[in-house]
Specification:
356 residues, alpha/beta, 434 Repressor (Amino-terminal Domain), Rossmann fold, 6-stranded parallel sheet, 4-stranded parallel sheet, 12 strands
Length: 356
């Protein structure tokens, strides 16, 4: 290629690029770059691009010129700087306090996570799922949660801990789900009504002896209230109640002894969750007990199961996905300085399957 041809090519390239500007190589476009290119003040650019509060008035023509210049220079706002100016990060977080492993494949936690994601999507918020903060004490966890990275926090905790108390007293907007915490708005379900619905259903079916299967560990107040309501209603209906406690899905040795004995076997087992009920269904299926002829079974949650062999479990439907979805709405309202109810309980309903 001759020198003349090369010069013509370079001249043509300069002509094509005429009117285009860019920031110095290696750095992002700034408000000052846009101001210089558009021939206006940096304050005017900030007013237009960041909705900054200022006494400076920007005409429609100047606003259009600034917007055109920003687009031409391929300006990208700095999210961190913007969040510092607005004191908002647009991020909501979720933390399970008792080191609960939030496996999406486990139906209960999968429902909670689904509602959180749906709620954040509706409100155009980013979602941060905090891990278990391994090897960190509660003071360190508190500082991590309060580091300014999030606008608000949704927590799941079975019991009140010192960390939860500190969160309740902090300036960070917090909402809890499923289980209540004094001083923090909570979204849950109608636990007492759930207990009564199950007891009435059992009475309507004519069952007289029930084994109530609850968790062996300390029960949070929500589960205690559900059990108390069930017990009170069952007694009104003339039903005899036995109790067992087991933290595993499968029946304990004591429970197996009761289930295997025709004289001791109850008419129906009511479990505190579908997960616990499924273990009894599986045991009956493997040991030749007919459901519901030999033993009726009912649960709580209305969640899918990989164990249940083609059976529709009688249960109480609890809208866990809607619980967390609604919690996001309350948290957004709290972040905006609005008052929200301290306790919100979503309705439940009995689902009659073929196990009672």
């Amino acid at each position: 290629m001759s020198q003349t041809t090369l010069e013509k090519g370079m001249s043509s390239l300069r002509s094509k690029n005429e009117g285009l500007a860019s920031a110095p190589a290696g750095r992002a476009v700034t408000l000052a770059d846009i101001a210089s290119e558009a021939g206006v003040s940096t304050v005017a650019v900030s007013v237009v691009l960041n909705n900054a509060q200022s006494k400076v008035r920007v005409s429609a023509a100047t606003r259009e010129r600034i917007m055109e210049t920003a687009q031409r220079l391929q300006y990208r706002p700095n999210a961190v700087a913007r969040s510092l100016r607005r004191r908002r990060t647009n991020i909501l977080a979720f933390y399970a306090v008792q080191n609960v492993v939030l496996e999406p494949g486990f139906p209960f936690y999968g429902a909670l996570l689904s509602g959180l994601l749906s709620g954040c999507d509706e409100h155009q918020k980013d979602f941060l799922l905090h891990g278990t903060f391994r090897d960190m004490d509660e003071d360190a966890i508190f500082l991590e949660l309060m580091n300014g990275q999030i606008d608000g926090l949704i927590i799941y905790t079975r019991f009140v801990t010192p960390l939860v108390e500190k969160l309740a007293e902090s300036h960070l907007p917090v909402v809890t789900v499923v289980h209540e915490v004094p001083g923090i708005p909570c979204v849950g379900i109608q636990n007492e009504e759930a207990g009564r619905l199950l007891a009435r259903h059992i009475a309507d079916k004519g069952y007289k002896r029930v084994l109530y299967r609850s968790t062996a560990s300390d029960m949070p107040p929500t589960l205690e209230r559900r059990l108390a309501a069930f017990t009170a209603e069952a007694r009104l209906q003339g039903i005899e109640i036995m109790h067992s406690r087991c933290d595993t899905q499968w029946p304990s040795a004591e429970e197996k002894e009761i289930l295997d004995s025709e004289s001791e076997r109850p008419d129906v087992v009511v479990a505190y969750s579908d997960f616990a009920a499924d273990g009894v269904v599986d045991y009956c299926w493997k040991n030749g007990l007919k459901i519901p002829e030999d033993l009726a079974i009912a649960g709580f949650d209305d969640l899918p199961s990989n164990l249940r062999p083609a059976r529709r479990l009688t249960t109480v439907s609890a809208p866990w996905r809607e619980v967390t979805r609604h919690a996001v709405s309350l948290l957004v309202a709290r972040c905006n300085g609005e008052d929200v109810p301290l306790r919100t309980e979503l309705p439940v309903e009995i689902i009659e399957g073929d196990t009672t």
